[in-house]
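Slide 14.
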Amino acid sequence: MLNIISLFKRFLPPYKKYIAGSLLFNLLATIFSLFSFAAIIPVLQILFNLKRPDVVYMPWTWGDTLSDLVAAFKNNFSYWLTTTITSIGPGLTLLYIGLFLIVLTALKTGSTYLGLRTVIPMRTGVVRDIRNKLYKKIVSLPIGYFTEERKGDIMSRMSSDVTEVEQSILNAVDMIFKNPMMIVIYLGVMFIMSWELTIFVLLLLPFSGWLIGIIGRNLRRKSAVAQAQQGEMLSQMDE
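Slide 15: predicted structure.
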């Protein structure tokens, strides 16, 4: 983790605007995803002909507490759904909700694409900067260094090792900037919908984290062995 932070400090400052753009689009994608999930509830109610309680419109203001705002939103949404079904019928209501879902899905997909598209200049720029630094470092080395070191190792560092660093930086950007934002938003919505079920899910997280950690360490060991074998293979090919 400390190595990733060191890489961030060295190579990411010129690309801060791309990180900000990616965060913005990922935030929009998360919001659209939540609304898409919420829009499925009335669809299920209509399809399974679930009985909807009699509700009346509940006025609300921005000065209300968060719990009051959430309760008013749920109540008014049920009121709108009941009124719409009564006025135009369940068939047209389902059609309108379906069109709304299509629009939300398109917006979510577009935001996700733009979030990934915004990261591409940062990704290519970081790789370019790393390769330039490696090139300058190798060119500045004395001739004796190349007689003592295997050329395959140097070639491996210039090719596959840089690719590994690139993937590590991209994964770290998601882990540090994107994933925490999504986790906080999703957990907040989950607690609002059902705090009991959310606590049950959180109790399973330590086991999942332990299992993922074991798999990750195993993959890192295999990756290190593969990198060493690739360097040896390139050295033998050069000889």
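Speaker note: The two ends are 37 Å apart (CA to CA).
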